[in-house]
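Suppose a colleague, Dr. K., hands you the sequence of a protein chain of 122 amino acids and asks what its three-dimensional shape might be. Before reaching for any lab equipment, you can write down a predicted structure in token form. Begin with the sequence itself:
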Amino acid sequence: MLDALTIAIGVAALALAAWCGFAAYRDQPTKDWHFIGMAVVTLLVLVQLAIGLVRLAQGEKPDEGGVIFTAYLLGAFASVPAAGLLSLSERTKWGSVTVAAGAVVLAVLEVRLHDIWGGTGA
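The predicted structure, expressed as tokens, is then:
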């Protein structure tokens, strides 16, 4: 995988988590700006998903197997949008907490994806 992209996604996810965590601290639900932030993070993960699937299709093999790698790619892609949808149903500070938690999960998944691939860059 691309180390720079993985790091960018991890940093963006943690920034989103901090931003939504601060909103929760201030007793605010997710707002339009938070959804724009979620869209940016999701777009980065979509790029990673495409690159990962292309590299698998080209015959490259992750150290821990293609199935587990693909599962983690799909989980990473779904984590922030799923949290965003849940935050729409909970229009209190707990919606912001949900997005912050989803973003932290994404950051952890990025570390794991790096390990599954083999920890080396492209």
